[in-house]
Design a protein that fits this description.
mainly alpha, 10% strand, binds glutamic acid
């Protein structure tokens, strides 16, 4: 029986959760779920000066938002903890003693403890990059403990991978050049190294390494902009991995079953915000009404819209969901459903005033609507058609006028949908308001 797969995401909490880190976490998570293994979250917070509570929280929040649940780690617990490196000093001391016993470390005059490299060539059989050869090093021996007693990254990283029983290390390619040091440490401690998969960098549109300043680099920015977690999850998976499937749009279950690190590309991935946004639009239009409502509410509230009933809100959102890519765009498309003092776009006022007949047409429609007994989309259609015939115009000429009057906007859902959602009373009041506005302006 092969050992259970144990993988980890090991972020250093020095800033927000970066898109590169999130993708590393995601690949680890997918692999753990694919193999029925464990996904561990370990916080590499040995650099006290650079770690912040806010950064730790951003990691937890970002991972939870993406749906990357961890089996062991902070909050989840587990029997290989603590899962914060800052709380593991005793373990590192014990491992240093092992290296001492093996005769692999020595203390310098200044107090730094150095690890004697074996100085043999190393081959890393990487699942993504293939066999990576390193010649015997000529670098000076590596400090593993500083004079102040703190340990350096390479040492604690290896000790924790041993202690936590990590079987596969899936991490950014920026760590590949130091992996030979890690392998040397594993061997000095009498252990086999885990299997490695170094995943390519994410490049910005300019073709350089994506940095904090690049658009889309922080996971929080997706939350704020109104992306859906499933869409971002799907898009991030494709940064460096092409699933063996006809379709790029895949749900989590399919991605779990298809994911294999050997299919990760060795070439760098190019970040494309337009594609990520396109994915979001696809996911958005598939949301069930109640799910869209729940996702949109914080954005509507933030825009100051007071939502009275959920039924009209749900339907209003459904009526425009194909027109937007992000949740944050929704308020601009539905705000007039929630306020009677909706503004009129300049362009709308100009179009209404362009022909003197427009006000007359609106007044006719208003009179018809006021006596309409059946208020649903087919009846409203019939009513507008009858008015058009009477007035000697096409229904297509009246529809935009109604849209302008009822919403103040030139774009939106179907006019009969707007009328139906507003109901008779509010629609008539809106036509009166628009007529008054036109008279005042005349
Ligand atoms: N703390 C390291 C980082 O954030 C982890 C490296 C690793 O995954 O081994 O890059």
């Amino acid at each position: 029986m092969p050992d259970t797969v144990r993988v980890r995401f090991a972020p250093s909490p020095t800033g927000f959760l970066h898109v590169g880190g999130a993708r590393t976490a995601l690949f680890n998570w997918l692999y753990a779920r694919h193999r029925g293994g464990k996904f561990i979250l370990r916080i590499e917070d040995t650099d006290e000066a650079r770690n912040t509570e806010a950064a730790r929280q951003a990691i937890f929040d970002g991972m939870k938002w993406l749906g990357l649940d961890w089996d062991e780690g902070p909050e989840a617990g587990g029997d290989r903890g603590p899962y914060f490196q800052s709380q593991r000093k005793g373990i590192y001391d014990a491992y240093l003693a092992k290296l001492e016993e093996a005769g692999r470390v020595y203390t310098e005059e200044g107090g730094a403890v150095r690890f004697k490299f074996s100085r043999e060539p190393v081959i890393i059989p990487d699942m993504v990059c293939g066999d990576v050869h390193f010649a015997a090093t000529e670098e000076p021996d590596m400090t593993v403990r500083r004079p102040d007693g703190s340990y350096i990254f390479h040492f604690v990283n290896v000790v924790d991978d041993i202690e936590m029983g990590i079987t596969h290390v899936i991490r950014g390619e920026d760590h590949l050049s130091n992996t030979w040091k890690h392998i040397d440490l594993f061997h000095a401690l009498g252990k086999h190294s885990p299997r490695y998969a170094h995943i390519p960098l994410i490049l910005n549109p300019a073709g350089t390494k994506m940095s904090k300043r690049d658009e889309g680099s922080s996971i929080q920015s997706y939350i704020d902009a109104g992306f859906l977690s499933d869409a971002v999850f799907n898009y991030l998976c494709l940064l460096g991995w092409t699933p063996k499937s006809a379709n790029e749009k895949l749900d989590r279950t399919s991605m779990i079953s298809l994911f294999d690190p050997i299919h990760i590309h060795s070439a760098n991935a190019r970040f494309d915000m337009a594609k990520c946004t396109w994915f979001n639009a696809q996911y958005l239009r598939e949301l069930a009404p109640e799910v869209l409502l729940k996702a949109a509410l914080p954005f509507l509230e933030k825009a100051g819209l007071v939502i009275a009933g959920s039924s009209i809100t749900e339907r209003a959102l459904q009526s425009v969901k194909e027109k937007v890519s992000l949740l944050s765009e929704l308020p601009a498309w539905v705000h007039y459903f929630f306020r009677e003092d909706y503004p009129y776009e300049d362009e709308v006022v100009a179009k209404l005033r362009a022909k003197p007949d427009n006000a007359k047409f609106l007044a006719e429609l208003r009179a018809d609507f006021a006596v309409l007994t059946q208020w649903d989309e087919p009846s409203l259609h019939t009513s507008v058609e009858a008015a058009a015939a009477r007035l000697g115009v096409k229904p297509g000429a009246l529809m935009p006028l109604l849209r302008f009057a009822l919403s103040g906007q030139s774009r939106g859902p179907g006019v009969t949908t707007i009328l139906d959602l507003l109901g008779k009373e509010r629609s008539v009041v809106r036509l009166d308001r628009t007529l008054a506005m036109l008279e005042l302006a005349a």
